[in-house]
Amino acid sequence: MENISIVQANQDDAELLLEIEQATESITYSTVKNISQAKSYINSAKILWLYKNNVVIGKVSYVLSEDKTVEITGLIILPAYRKKGYGKYLVKHVIALFPNAKMKLTVHPENNSAISLYYSLGFTSQDTLTNPYGDGEPRLLMIRNPATHQK
Ligand SMILES: CC(C)(COP(=O)(O)OP(=O)(O)OC[C@H]1O[C@@H](n2cnc3c(N)ncnc32)[C@H](O)[C@@H]1OP(=O)(O)O)[C@@H](O)C(=O)NCCC(=O)NCCS
């Protein structure tokens, strides 16, 4: 891929995070709404920026839990850059960082583009959660088990 790099976010990136998240508000994706939420997000998860030609075009975030499960807690590609493989590239990058880990994530059941992306990388749906984030919306719980996945 052309002039692409992945860089870890730091404490100074709260405004950038807010900007990227606010470009993505929709019923199928709960976003960060203010600077203090952006700061606590940066403190509680690893966030990786995707740069193209020195401009941030997306991000992925994850947390590593005590049982060594990796939870993908966020994935965004800015609208102008979607459907070009960048989202898949970011998720593949996280999988490559933890090739032997079980992975999990939640996604809105109507978020078809994200669900297809995750299926294509070996995630399967496990459960439907009624209202896990208190926004009145359901989520699909998806997992990826490296032992049973070939790609
Ligand atoms: C979901 C999102 C990250 C996908 O990013 P993207 O860069 O457009 O995805 P990719 O181009 O890497 O697509 C990878 C795969 O996803 C699927 N896909 C992507 N967009 C799709 C669409 N609009 N409809 C159906 N499938 C789609 C395809 O299966 C594609 O597979 P392919 O490699 O065979 O073409 C992006 O749409 C986004 O930022 N959405 C808003 C935030 C969000 O909902 N994040 C997910 C939260 S769990």
Question: Can I get a quick summary?
Answer:
The chain has helices spanning 14-22, 35-44, 86-97, 112-120, and strands at 4-8, 46-52, 55-64, 70-77, 103-107, 124-129, 139-144. With 151 residues, the chain is of the alpha+beta class.
Rg for CA atoms? 15 Å
Mean pLDDT: 93
DSSP strand count:
7
Number of domains: 1
Judged by helices, strands and strand pairing, the structural class is alpha+beta
How much helicity do the residues have?
25-40%
CATH topology: Aminopeptidase
CATH class: Alpha Beta
How much beta, percentage-wise?
25-35%
Spatial arrangement of strands, main beta sheet: 1-2-3-4-5-7-6
Distinct bound molecules: coenzyme A
Report how far the terminal alpha carbons are from each other. 19 Å
Total DSSP helices: 4
Biggest beta sheet attributes: 7 strands, mixed
* Superfamily (CATH H level) name: Gcn5-related N-acetyltransferase (GNAT)
